[in-house]
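User: I've been trying to design a sequence by hand for this structure and keep getting stuck. Would you show me what you'd pick, starting by listing the structure so we're on the same page?

Assistant: Good idea, let's start from the same input. This is the structure you sent:
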């Protein structure tokens, strides 16, 4: 008879490798930011309980639900009971969407506010194209001057007081020096990407678009050239997708609806340079390009 324990161990090996690859960067981030293991452990326990509860549902007898979650997660019933207690109400409001990022995206993509060469320099006030008109096309709940101050604070825009004109000084919305915002982007981008990848693994692989290209054996100076190619492709992708998304959002707003589905579309690169030790000529690294679909 086949050894069922050995078979289970063989099946678990690829999952363990995947979990290690996912958790190692998270551990690096936690250590760099001084977050102790006990805090991460508490978050992971809660995530396990929430995942098990979503599978088994919250209906039925509480004791049965606790038992099912404990069985699925390996946590004790006492721990599960504690983690499934209703959270105390807090005064913290739900996070709002970033209006600054919406203004930035429209400035980068709307033909009214850009040319083929890039975003236009805008008069601060006046009819379109002006920064005032741009900000008001996104929201009238925030004064255009306050919106401008926020973009300047984030290091994304500059205001020339002599000409009273506003310019974008960066082409990517990753505010430097704003740790809270950068952490929010990290959690949102990586979280959605990972959630989509997990959905594909647990399903038939067709729910979310996820593809990647791998290459190794590249010369050291290739990274900079490759970055320029990818950046150009991202600009083309953004220029075609953002206007389509804006048109969909405008149609929803005009129809008085604000409860539709959400989407996140991203493009990323990761480069891992080898150690500086010279590679022996007899064992030159193979040149390979691989696709993941």
């Amino acid at each position: 008879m086949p050894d069922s324990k050995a078979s289970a161990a063989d099946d678990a090996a690829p999952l363990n490798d995947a979990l290690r690859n996912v958790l190692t960067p998270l551990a690096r981030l936690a250590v760099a930011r001084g977050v102790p293991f006990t805090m991460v452990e508490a978050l992971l326990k809660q995530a396990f309980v929430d995942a098990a509860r979503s599978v088994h549902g919250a209906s039925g007898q509480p004791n049965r639900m606790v038992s099912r979650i404990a069985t699925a997660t390996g946590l004790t019933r006492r721990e599960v009971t504690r983690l499934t207690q209703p959270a105390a109400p807090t005064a913290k409001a739900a996070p709002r969407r970033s209006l600054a990022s919406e203004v930035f995206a429209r400035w980068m993509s709307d033909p009214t506010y850009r040319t083929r060469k890039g975003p236009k320099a805008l008069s601060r006030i006046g009819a379109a194209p002006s920064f005032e008109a741009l900000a008001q096309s996104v929201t009238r709940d925030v004064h255009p001057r306050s919106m401008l101050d926020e973009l300047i604070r984030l290091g994304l825009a500059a205001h020339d007081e002599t000409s009273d004109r506003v310019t974008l000084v960066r082409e990517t919305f990753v505010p430097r020096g704003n740790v809270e915002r950068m952490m929010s982007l990290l959690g949102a981008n990586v979280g959605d990407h990972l959630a989509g990848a997990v959905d594909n693994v647990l399903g038939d692989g067709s729910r979310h678009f996820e593809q990647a290209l791998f290459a190794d054996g590249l010369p050291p100076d290739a990274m900079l050239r490759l970055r320029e190619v990818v950046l150009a492709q991202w600009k083309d992708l953004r220029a075609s997708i953002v206007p389509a998304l804006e048109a969909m959002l405008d149609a929803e707003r005009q129809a008085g609806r604000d409860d539709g589905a959400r989407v996140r579309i991203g493009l990323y690169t990761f480069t891992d340079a080898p150690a500086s030790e010279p590679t022996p000529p007899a064992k030159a690294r193979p040149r390979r390009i691989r696709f993941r679909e």
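That's my pick for every position. To get oriented when you compare it with your attempt: The chain has nine helices and seven strands. The first strand starts at residue 114 and ends at 115.
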